[in-house]
Each structure stands twice: as structure tokens, then as C-alpha cells.
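Async update (no meeting this week)

Hi team, since we skipped the sync, here's where things stand on the single-chain job. The sequence we agreed to prioritize is pasted below, unchanged from the tracker. I ran it this morning and attached the output directly underneath so nobody has to dig for it. Comments welcome in thread, and please keep replies under the output.
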Amino acid sequence: MNFKYKAKDDEVADIDVTSFMNLMIVLVPVLLLSMTFTQTTVLEIKLPELTGGGVASDDPQSKLEVELTADSVKVYYPENTLVQDIPKIQTEEGMDYDYRQLSLVLQAVKAKVPEKQDILLRSELDIDYQHIVGAMDTLKSYKTVVAASVVEIELFPEISLDDARKVVKARSL
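Output:
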């Protein structure tokens, strides 16, 4: 018994990829949309020292402090010397901090001491997280137009956080 296999040269096997294409048509837009929601931004801050002191500095009188209170933003430089008290302003969403004016004050301080990199942000306990992050963005840098393009200029990138309650008590004494 001889069996001979006779292959048909005229038949070509087709691969059915329609189900795979349907999957890709649905999967690709879903993956692209989910990527835009997973972007995270990290703000680096310096934690207070374990000794209980404030920001380590060569000159103790050279502290630059910004204090967020319930009704204003106060800028102190040097330590305990009020530069400006910036009250809240009325916006479309309600009362909000005047970050633009805060940025202008910090730009003036930066012009006086261009080598300074650190700043201390003090806030009261009832200040919303979004206001603290907005203040940190303002302290870190500002945007300006140079040669027909928008650039980000660094102000004070080394931000430390502290509680404003203990300082208010010390200043009132």
C-alpha cells in the first residue's frame, strides 16, 4: 500500500484577522485615553531638621519666609521683617490668594539676593492642600516671555514646610 500525498498548489490558506483588528480598534483609544489621566507631578520639599530648628542657613537673619493665613499671604525677609502682606482677592471661584502679586514680591526679593535658593512656607492647619501646592508652584518659579517664547525662571526651588501656629505665638509676644 503506497500512499501518496498530493498537495494542491492552487489553494492558499487565509488568516482571519478581523477579530484581532476589532480588538485593536477598541484597545488603542482606551489605552491612549487612560495615559492622560495617569500623569503625576512631584514637588520636592525639604523636611525640617530633627533638632527642631528651621532651615539650616549660614546667616540666621537671612531666612525668607512666606506665611499662608486664612485671609492673606505674608512675606518676611529677613526673619521677622514683614516685606508685604498680600490680602486675598475676589476671583470667579470666590476668594483666593493673589499668587500673581506674591510672585512679583518674590521676584523683587530674588533681585536683591540672587544667590538665595531656599524658602520656608508656613501655613495654618485649615489651609486647603490645593492652596499650599499653588503657593509652592509660585515660590519655585515664574513664567515670562523672552525672545517671543515663554520660559520658566527659577525663584526659590528649595522649599521647606512648617506650621504657622508656633510662629504667630512667638511674634505676638
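Quick observations from my side:
The mean pLDDT is 80.
The chain is about 30% helix and 25% strand.
Reply here if anything looks off.
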